Fold:
Amino acid sequence: MQSHLAKFIATASSIDASNANGNGSHNEDALVVVSGVSPDLDLDDEPIQRSQKTDPDLGRRVAQFLIEKGVATPQIETGLDDAEKRTIIARNFAEIMRALGLDLSDDSLADTPRRVAQMYVDEIFYGLDWRNFPKCTTVENKMGYSSMVIERNINVQSNCEHHFVIIDGRAHVAYIPKKKVLGLSKINRVVEYFAKRPQIQERLTEQIFYALSYILETEDIAVLIHAKHYCVKSRGVEDVNSDTVTSKLGGVFLTNSATRSEFMRAVNSIAAA
Ligand SMILES: [Zn+2]
Structure:
């Protein structure tokens, strides 16, 4: 399964270059505009504008790295472009609605299948496509900054891969710069990218960790996520107030208890606030 994807990723550069329908662009400065419009569905919604620059080449290398680390999302290559995905999802979601006994001739329900299709492909699951990986330009750590950098309270809006229901939480990410420093907003972008795919929280945590360790060329990274899982909450299996905490600590965050405590104190101080 993963070797299939690995092979695909390895040959992806040529596919990417010839894929006129891909969201990714080799023009790094281009604003990404996802049209969201499939000609055969006669869509009339506004195009989705993601105000985020992408780096498909970095996305491909990060995807490869996650496979090597054993934390990749189980994926197969479908060969479908985004318009084809939307068409197939809309058709099949209409079947789901009919099976539930919903009347698709009702004007409130009629457009739901294609709305869901557009939402899946262009919004909540855009992070399945490494061509959408955010541009993460690093700068050389010339000032020799060697203290902890912490980005706290990053919004996590994801969907659980077992029920396709919302995971809603916050991520806290810290790292200690070695050779490279990354713009803080880029950490938020990396978290968002991996949240925008069907997920389990443990893997989400690991993917963020390893992507950042690849980009920053260090393992001195800490990622902690706490989130509510609506599949637990809305289905009443467990306490509605429960949340799930996952973390991945690397390098000095593992070996140095003072560093680890400093990170945990920084995280707990907002939890308590
Ligand atoms: Zn679930």
